[in-house]
UniProtKB/TrEMBL annotation:
GO terms for cellular component: mitochondrial matrix. The keyword Zinc-finger does not apply. It catalyses: (3Z)-decenoyl-CoA = (2E)-decenoyl-CoA; (3Z)-dodecenoyl-CoA = (2E)-dodecenoyl-CoA; (3Z)-octenoyl-CoA = (2E)-octenoyl-CoA; (2E)-tetradecenoyl-CoA = (3Z)-tetradecenoyl-CoA. Pathway: Lipid metabolism; fatty acid beta-oxidation. Gene3D superfamilies: 2-enoyl-CoA Hydratase, Chain A, domain 1, 6.10.250.170. Key enzyme of fatty acid beta-oxidation. Able to isomerize both 3-cis (3Z) and 3-trans (3E) double bonds into the 2-trans (2E) form in a range of enoyl-CoA species, with a preference for (3Z)-enoyl-CoAs over (3E)-enoyl-CoAs. The catalytic efficiency of this enzyme is not affected by the fatty acyl chain length. Keywords: Acetylation, Fatty acid metabolism, Isomerase, Lipid metabolism, Mitochondrion, Transit peptide. GO terms for biological process: fatty acid beta-oxidation. Belongs to the enoyl-CoA hydratase/isomerase family. One of its GO terms (molecular function) is delta(3)-delta(2)-enoyl-CoA isomerase activity. It is found in: Mitochondrion matrix. This is Enoyl-CoA delta isomerase 1, mitochondrial.
Length: 275
């Protein structure tokens, strides 16, 4: 549905290709140089290893295509992204868990530091890793009023890695992030707008895409070099810890995921989702 809307809107796409297995659809508007990356992994766009690898490789492709901006959104009704695939946490194979963790670290760094401006059009619920994807973009437009967004990891009995937390601090500030993270709070669209977790709230996805394009149009007269240097200077403090501590972060996640207490919490959470 969303795909059709975007195509109708411009009619100028030079490139409309499906990534492997169609979990991701990417389009590039030739005239504006704007790419749209649409997540389409039913039922909830949960991030497993294969999906993360696709997102990472598509970001590299966009870098090579020298696009001028990107919109990240979802083709699913009511869901932007449900975060990491929780079934991957339950009795995990340590080798696969390590691979997912590393791929997620790299995907986040690639998204957070893109050389082009990015907008998340949040057209559905966006918990945990979904919220992280949105927070990593340069700008967030959320469809309201019925969706929710936030880092809810404590509600699962797990700990959001430091780089998730730092990313949230960079968006909403230390105090609000601390309350938000420790309580695992999910915010409605209006609440998210109020605390600055999203930049705009709109009633429907058409409006959201328009707002996203309007934001990206701001960069038509900005030198890509000046944009990228400024973004790197702003974002460097947030990424540096992870760049310096990838192995430490990985060890922490694997060790905590394997602990019986965490496994028990995840089992209970999964059961509650199934209900
Ligand atoms: C993977 C290991 C990697 C380690 C590397 C990094 C280190 C990270 C450490 C910790 C960080 C974690 C970050 C996370 O992202 S944890 C994930 C947290 N996500 C959630 O809590 C979302 C839970 N889901 C929901 O709240 C709701 O499903 C929804 C998204 C609001 C949608 O609600 P709706 O009513 O429309 O749909 P259902 O609830 O009926 O769900 C439909 C089916 O989808 C299944 N589901 C939902 N979310 C997930 C998920 N995140 N992973 C896997 N599966 C999910 C749900 O169980 C239903 O399945 P069913 O049809 O079989 O019953």
């Amino acid at each position: 549905m969303l795909r059709r809307y975007i195509l109708n809107k411009t009619n100028t796409f030079i490139n409309y290709r499906y990534a492997s297995q169609s979990m991701l659809q990417s389009t590039i508007d030739d005239k504006l140089g704007i790419a749209t990356l649409v997540m389409n992994k039913p039922p909830v766009n949960s991030l497993n290893l294969e999906f993360l690898e696709e997102i990472k490789s598509q970001l590299t492709q966009f870098k090579n295509d020298k696009i001028r901006g990107m919109i990240l959104t979802s083709d699913l009704q009511k869901i932007f992204c449900a975060g990491l695939d929780i079934t991957e946490f339950s009795n995990p194979n340590p080798e696969r868990l390590s691979k997912i963790c590393t791929t997620f670290q790299d995907t986040w760094l690639a998204l957070y530091l893109t050389q082009f401006p990015t907008v998340a059009v949040i057209n559905g619920h966006s918990p945990a890793g979904g919220c992280l994807l949105a927070m990593s973009c340069d700008y967030r437009v959320m469809v309201g009023p019925n969706y929710t967004i936030g880092l809810n990891e404590t509600k699962l009995g797990i700990v959001a890695p430091k780089w998730f937390q730092d990313c949230m601090v960079a968006v909403i500030g230390q105090r609000k992030a601390e309350v938000s993270l420790t309580t695992g709070k999910m915010y409605t669209t209006d609440q998210a707008l109020q605390i600055g977790l999203v930049d705009e709230s709109v009633p429907d996805v058409d409006n959201a895409i328009n707002k996203g394009i309007q934001f990206l149009n701001n960069f038509q007269k900005i030198s890509p070099w000046a944009y990228k240097m400024t973004k790197d200077i702003r974002r460097q403090p947030t990424v540096q810890w992870l760049i310096d501590n990838k192995q430490k972060d990985l060890d922490f996640v694997v060790k905590s995921m394997m602990s019986p207490n965490v496994q028990k919490s995840i089992g209970l959470y999964l059961q509650s989702l199934k209900k």
